[in-house]
Structure formats: C-alpha cells, structure tokens
Amino acid sequence: MPSSAPPESGFENDDALAALEERILKIVELVETLRAERDEAIAERDAARKAAGSNVVGSQKLRDELESLKTERKQVRTRIEKLLGQMDLLSGQ
Length: 93
What we know:
The protein contains 1 helix and no strands.
C-alpha cells in the first residue's frame, strides 16, 4: 500500500530530525560548558575562602603582636620614668 503522504514528507522528517539532533548537540555542548564554568567558579570560591581564612589568621597574629608591643612599650616607659626620677633625686642632692 502506498503511503498517503507526499514523497517530500520523508525529506521534511529528515530535516526536522537533523534540526532536532543539532539542537540537542548544541544543548549538550552548552551543558558541558556551563559545568566547566561552574567547576571553575567553585574552585575560585574555595581558593578565595582559603585566602580569607589565611588573612584572618595573619591579622590575628598581627593584632597579638601589636598588643605585645604596646605592653612592652608601656613597661619600657615606666622603667625610663623610674630611672629619670632616680636621676632627678641624684642631681637634687
């Protein structure tokens, strides 16, 4: 039994199938690209978090060192004032 569709219909189906296949391939490429970009973004985020954590530790060390230096400066100032007071006593005698 001959088909009731015109003979060109086979070509149209092939064209539609080819177009669909092309669209699917483009979508697959797009998905692969997006996944690669996502993986890269995640890696960048992780590196930034690690750097931020390192900066926090570094800044805490600097704060501790600053506090230590302030304490030491205060002690040196007190000792110098004490020595100056003793020199005043000696020069006053």
